[in-house]
Amino acid sequence: MPSVSLSITNFMSQFLAVELDSAGMVATSGVPVVDAAAQESLSTGLPAIKKSDLATDGSVAMTVPVYKEGQIVSMAGFLAHCDQQTLCVMEVWQPIGVYDELSLTLGYFGAMERFQNVSAYVRFEKGSGLPGQVWENRDCIIHDNLPSHPGFLRAAGASADSLQLAIGMPVADEEFLASVLLISSDAFPIAKAYEVWHPDGDQFTLTQAAYQRVSDDMRLEIGAKVPVAAAGSPPSLVDLALQQGAVVTGEQSERLWIGRDGCEAGSGMGIAIPFYQGDQVHSVLVCVA
Asked: InterPro entries per the record (predicted)?
């Protein structure tokens, strides 16, 4: 299975493209905690969060299924290093009960007990807060500068724990199933760049973006347009996710930093996750570390 490893000083230690074989079964990753999460996602059809059983391992895995026309076609795997000082969050929010609102059903909060306690009692209506916005739009949403972001309703908790940005991802079959959140801090960044690209004919348009510890020349403006890779040209991760219709990972800088011709990108590693509406890829989330 393709995967890339990050420095252990980051919260995220691996991005993984979890593959399904021709029979629709999950291929082994060689990482037991990731395999356990992937098997649970395949069984339930929902995102899964699993913590390693090994006391000395200190890792937690989250898997996010990608649906196309009612079938799981791929999964994104996130393997994180965790300890008592970790300041990053993984969350799953689902429509639960008779009310039209989302509740927290799974989460990893590291050292942030206060933020966890607040989150356990919060509910989000459709369009309210980041989970509710993901639900309403059925698309990836990025919130930056969380302590002052008007749409991030847990801003006080985010400020107390130095949380900087959050990525919301939809999991939807015919019906909406869950909002999945990754929340990154200054001290334990998940990645350097977070971008949402929408395919539009022969080009991609950047509709959401946030950056951590990235120079100004590597940051793109919202609305930036990049042509789809021509035949014979090296494809970016965004191109590969669109072509394959599945989660992809990579570490070649020219594939990661789409739209930065002439910039010194340096080394990097990343993941691209396609999200469907019907049988078409509607958007691609790219995280680069």
From this structure: Lectin_legB_Mn/Ca_BS
CA 252 to chain centre: 20
pLDDT at residue 247 in the model: 96
- AA identity, residue 42: L
Q: Which residue has the higher pLDDT, 73 or 24?
A: 73
Domain boundaries, the chain: 1-82, 83-190, 193-288
CA 75 to chain centre: 11
Above 50 in pLDDT, residue 1?
no
Region of 41 please: left (phi>0), alpha (psi -120 to 50) or beta.
Answer: alpha
Beta bridge partners of 274: 284
| Class for the domain spanning 193-288 | alpha beta
State the Cα–Cα distance between residues 201 and 219, nearest whole angstrom.
24
Percent of the chain beyond pLDDT 90?
Answer: 54
- Judge if 83-190 and 193-288 fold alike in CATH terms: yes
**Cα 98–103–106 angle (5° rounding)?**
135
Q: What pLDDT shows up at residue 8?
A: 36
Rounded-to-integer distance, Cα 55 and Cα 58, Å: 6
